[in-house]
Amino acid sequence: MDQLLAMRAFTRVVESGNFTRAADSLDMPNATMSKLVQELEAHLGVRLLLRTTRKVTVTPEGQDYYAKATRILNDLEDIDSSFNVARSRARGNLRIDVGGLTARDVLIPLLPDFMGRYPDIRIDLGVADRSVDLISDNVDCVIRGGALDDSSLVARHIGDAVMVTCAAPAYLKQYGVPAYPEELKNGHRLVSYVSSQNGRAMPFRFERDGASLEIKLEHRIGINESNAHFGAAMAGLGIIQTFMHSASPALREGSLVEILAKWRPPSYPFHVVYPRNRYLTYRLRVFIDWLLECFPARVHGIGPG
Question: pTM value?
Fold first, then answer.
């Protein structure tokens, strides 16, 4: 039995919640994955997992072994990394999840630089404005904006986006240009971004001279995907609040117009998030370091492109 491989197989089954996803994440047949775990259990003389046709349950002994095994795998990764400092040696597959507008306007334009630095790293990019379970979905990290409330995850702050309130010229011609935030209550049409987590519309927020204001109105239309949300403003459906780095080309072209510029929304924080207990691979470390280097300028609207 390859004990190290068996440990990796077992920890990935625990993290993903079933053998099929675990096998896919390690690029091995399902039968091989199952055999490795069985051999590990026989070697230890304990049952680590309880299997049914519907789910896999970790036994108390399995939970204890998982905690110790992840520490060992982390240590091994650290040892490998200390002898593997050349950039060209970072290799393997990275599974990354990111929101639609952030993928389109920030991450993807930056990726040629990353792929040029680390040609042996392959990326599987999941793009959607919805939460993923990093463990069960076998995702290495996610890039997310806004407040974070899951203490089981590690979050690294990677930048703050400038926000802007804007609408299409045709909309402003029909409904007028509000001079201050409270005027939005006077017959204006708001296009709200709706959270895919809780189904709630994000309020319109404003700041000026240290004062904060939040406008909560019944929206004309609510959209839970950032590209479609942005497209609704371009189509003249109403007023949105969005990222300056996404709106800048349309603002320059005149297809969108910034309004309430003296009442800019507060900046929007972005984080790269990854599981606390999963060992941090060298390829993920270099990706996070690269994000910390390149992401802040781009998301703040001063990066290239």
Answer: 0.71
